[in-house]
Amino acid sequence: MSKQKIETCKMHIKDLEEKLKKIYTVEMLKSKKTEDILNCDLREELDTNNFLESVYCNLEAKGIAEGDTYDKYNSYLINVRNRKTEI
Hints:
By secondary structure, the chain is mainly α. The chain contains 4 helices and 2 strands, in the order H-E-E-H-H-H. Strand 1 and strand 2 form a beta hairpin. The longest helix is centred in the first third of the chain and has 22 residues, at 3-24.
């Protein structure tokens, strides 16, 4: 493939990524106050939450269900899963 075709493809990909960002960016309340609104890219939020879930569920996947470490990471896991349903 020629350099020009590659550069054209990269330009189109960048343009499409920008359009996707606009489509999936929504306003969310940071807290219950209406002045605490922030823009949130839903794709980025879901990617982050999926990554965190994959990290925190390791103990669950190994069948470990007790102890301080389990309690700590299980509470993180519950929070991440709840956050995914909020998004």
